[in-house]
Amino acid sequence: MLRPSDRAPGLLLGERVTLPPTVQIGGNVVIHEGTVIGGEARIQDGAVIGKPLALGLRSVARREEPAPAEIGAEATICAGAVVVEGAVIGAGAVIGDQAHVRERATIGAESVVGRGSAVDNDVRVGARVRIQTGCYLTAFSVVEDDVFVAPGVTLTNDDTMGRHEPGYQMRGATLRRACRVGAGAVLVPGVEVGEEAFVAAGAVVTRDVPARAVVMGVPARHVRNVGDEDLLERFA
Question: How confident is the model at residue 63 (pLDDT cuts 50, 70, 90)?
Answer without folding.
Answer: confident
